[in-house]
Amino acid sequence: MALFSVKTLVLLRSCMLWSMAYFFVKDPTSIAKNGHVIVLAEAMDVPHTYFRPDDPMTGMIGFFLFMWGFTDLPPLFGDNYVQYLGSIVPIRALAFLCLSAAGYLTDSPLVSNSVVFSYSFLETMVNIFLYMTLREEENEMSRQNILNTREGAQAPREE
Q: Does 146 fall in a domain?
C-alpha cells in the first residue's frame, strides 16, 4: 500500500501549483529568495533569478500556474482517472526532466535559472512519485479484478 493515494498526490500537486501562483501574483521576489530555490541553484551551479514586483509577466505566470492546477481535477471525479493519469504523467515527467536537463546544461537565461530549474526538478520528482503510485494502484485494481473473477467462477451454480 502506498503512503499516499493517487487522488491525494494530484490534490497536493494542485495545491502546490496554486501556492506558487499566489506567490507569483502577490510577491514574486519571495519565490526567487526561497531557501530551497537558492540551495538547489547553488548545488547545481545554476544562475539565480530576480523578479521585479511590478513585472506584468509574473502575473501571467501566476495565472497559468493557477489554471494548470485545475487540469487534473476533473478526471479525478470520473471512473477512468487511473488510465488518464497513467497516460499523461510519464509524458509530463519526461518533459520536465528534459527541461531540468536543459536548465542545467545550457547557458540560455530563459531556461537556465534558479526558478525554472527548481520548478522543473520538483515537477519531475512529483510526477515520478505519482507514476509509481499509479502503477501500484493499477496493480492493486488488477489483483482485485482477478480475485473477483476467480470467486465468481468457483461459486456453485444453481440449476
A: yes
How far apart CA 155 and CA 140 sit, in angstroms, is 23
Crossing angle of helices 81-105/6-26, nearest 10°? 50
Report the domain count for the chain: 1
What 8-state DSSP symbol labels residue 33? T
The helix/strand/coil state of 27 is coil
Question: The domain containing residue 146 runs over which residues?
Answer: 6-152
In order along its 159 residues, the chain shows pLDDT tens digits of 568 888 999 999 999 999 999 999 999 999 999 999 999 999 999 999 888 878 889 999 999 999 999 998 888 888 888 888 999 999 999 999 999 999 999 988 888 899 999 999 999 999 999 999 999 988 988 898 888 888 777 766 665
Do 121 and 156 form a contact (C-beta atoms < 8 A)?
no
Helix and strand counts by DSSP (H, E) for the chain: 7, 0
Q: For residue 52, which phi and psi values (nearest 5 degrees)? A: -90, 140
Instruction: Let me know if residue 98 belongs to a domain.
Output: yes
C-alpha–C-alpha distance, residues 84 and 93, integer Å: 15
Q: What is the pTM of this model?
A: 0.85
The SS3 call for residue 101 is helix
Reduced to 3 states (helix: H, G, I; strand: E, B; else coil), residue 83 is helix
Is residue 140 a part of any domain in this protein?
yes
